[in-house]
Structures are given as C-alpha cells and as structure tokens.
From TrEMBL:
Residues 6-99 form the ASCH domain. SMART domains: ASCH. The lineage of its organism: Bacteria, Bacillati, Bacillota, Bacilli, Lactobacillales. It holds the Pfam family ASCH. This is ASCH domain-containing protein. Coiled coil: none annotated. InterPro entries: ASCH_domain (IPR007374), PUA-like_sf (IPR015947).
C-alpha cells in the first residue's frame, strides 16, 4: 500500500469535497496499489487541498466502469467517453473518508517540485 498525489482540476476537486464525485478516473493504473490519495488542485489554486482513502480500484472496459460509477462520477457521459476515447482500459479510484485541509499545502511541503502530469508517489 502507498500514497499517491493526483493533479485534479478545481471543478472536480469541489465535486469530490462535496460528495458529488466519489470516483477519480485515470487512463493508467499505478504499479503500486494506493490506499490514500493526496488531492492537488490545479491552476488557478495550485495547492494540495485535501486527501481521501481509496476504498476500491476498478480497472475494466470503459463502458463497464461507467456503468458502475455513473451515479457518483461527477461528470457526464459525453465527457467520460471523450476522456477514455480509444482506450481499452479505464481506471476508477473509489474514494472514501475525504478530508479537506483547513489550510492548503504547497507541493514543496511534500517534497514535490512540480505538479504531476498524472500522479506521483509520496
């Protein structure tokens, strides 16, 4: 088990924080299975604003993953289909116990120099 830091657009961060989005989608699975995700909100926020535990990781055909996640995906089907366009596998991290930090944290405080394109182990 490990912790990863994910770069997530602010609109989706807000949906994660308010419980509307319980799945974070990725095109690539991590080699190590994460049990916690540190949430970095991209521009214009550019700070770590919270964390979540990983309850489950779904890795399957994008259509099957959509059918399992659509009620708490935080995105519409068109966005989802475009995101996974031409991909054979979709990854969905099911989040639980989401915590919003009282004070946002800088990347450097985690020893990370720049925002990851996808993820970074911490």
């Amino acid at each position: 088990m490990c912790t990863i830091l994910l770069s997530i657009h602010p609109e989706f961060v807000e949906k994660i924080m308010n419980g509307e989005k319980k799945f974070e989608f990725r095109k690539v699975i991590t080699k190590k299975k994460p049990n916690k995700i540190i949430i970095y909100s991209t521009s214009p926020i550019c700070k770590i604003i919270g964390e979540a535990e990983v309850e489950d990781i779904l890795v399957d055909d994008p259509e099957l993953v959509w059918n399992e996640t659509k009620n708490f995906s935080g995105v519409n089907k068109e966005f989802y289909i475009e995101y996974f366009n031409d991909k054979e596998i979709a990854v969905a991290y099911k989040l639980k116990n989401v915590v919003k930090y009282e004070e946002p944290i800088m990347l450097k405080d985690y020893g990370v120099k720049s925002a990851p394109q996808s993820f970074v182990y911490v």
